[in-house]
Design goal:
about 300 residues; TIM Barrel; about 15% strand; 13 helices; disordered N terminus
Length: about 300
């Protein structure tokens, strides 16, 4: 028989606090006072190669130099970086990307790295995608495709501090072909809902440890309103500003609307956890000698327009 353990008066065990990705992204926004995510997309047609130190002698060294300088130029005005996996892989720069992410995390530890891989598979393949995202590339979060169902996403949720952004309502015009199809949904007050909303509903329901976010185009204003209204605590990753037609003023009017309505809520309940992604308009703001300054100037102006969400 095991005797009872007697504890001194006033002694108690502290329950470990579970840190989730929702906590991580809110902390990053608060620490950096920014909701901007800068995409890192290597495009040989846009790189200012004539103003990079290695000329035509070493493409990889030029890409490494370019993106480190971009990070230096933008870090004060953003909270996250989102490297596009295929664009690095197509240039044979996977090892360079891994080293770049390690460098970012060492020098800018308050910034998030979102691995934009859009992976989605089942079984053993999915487990290898998880290793790719969170071990090889040390990312804080990744983008995933929901097409193969919940089982394709589950392996990405093993560590609660890691985030998973599910493609929901994407910013490309061709997405209407699939994402706006209406599907039956007897559990909702409406008998039929758009497929993108059904995806959001199922994956938010699946998110028991606050790890899942949704990718919603910032140029899809009606859909963004709908998603934000239905799932106000779910982090959103919002591409589509600029050349795709999205406007920061429209996005702010939606994602900050709930804050204005309830001043008594805490920061967490206010859900200041949405990231607005900008890529080419920032990193390729100029292909001249002033490319570093142009990126810095552009991201600063965008951050001022967007606001940190902490002012509300």
């Amino acid at each position: 028989m095991i005797s009872s353990l007697l504890l001194p008066a006033g002694f108690f065990f502290e329950t470990p606090v579970l840190i989730t990705y929702h906590d991580v992204v809110e902390k990053a926004i608060k620490a950096n006072r920014s909701r901007l995510c800068v995409g890192l997309d290597p495009d040989l047609e846009k790189l200012p190669l004539q103003y990079l130190p290695y000329g035509k002698s070493s493409l990889k060294k030029n890409i490494e130099y370019f993106f480190k300088e971009v990070v230096y130029a933008t870090a004060d005005e953003c909270s996250a970086y989102k490297p596009q996996a295929a664009m690095f892989s197509a240039l044979g720069c996977e090892d360079l990307l891994a080293a770049l992410i390690t460098w970012i995390k060492k020098n800018f530890p308050n910034h998030l790295v979102i691995f934009d891989g859009k992976r989605g598979d089942i079984g053993n393949t999915a487990k290898h995608y998880v290793v790719e995202c969170f071990q090889r590339y040390e990312a804080d979060a990744t983008t995933v495709s929901p097409y193969m169902g919940l089982e394709s996403i589950k392996p990405f949720t093993e560590k609660p501090e890691k985030g998973v952004y599910v493609l929901c309502r994407t910013s490309n015009p061709g997405a209407d072909l699939i994402q706006k199809i209406r599907v039956p949904n007897r559990l909702h007050e409406r008998n039929f809902i758009p497929f993108y909303e059904y995806i959001a509903e199922k994956f938010v329901e699946f998110d028991v440890r606050n790890q899942i976010g949704l990718v919603v185009g910032a140029n899809c204003i009606d859909e963004l309103k709908n998603i934000h209204k239905r799932f106000p605590s779910t982090p959103l990753l919002l591409p589509g500003i600029g050349s795709q037609g999205g406007k920061i003023v429209d996005v702010v009017s939606i994602i900050d609307d709930d804050k204005k309505k309830s001043d008594s809520e805490s920061l967490g309940e206010r859900c200041n956890n949405n990231l607005i992604n900008l890529s080419r308009s920032v990193i390729y703001a100029s292909n001249g000698k002033d490319w570093k300054y142009a990126a810095m100037k552009k991201v600063k102006a965008l951050n001022v327009s967007l606001g940190s969400g902490l002012e509300c």
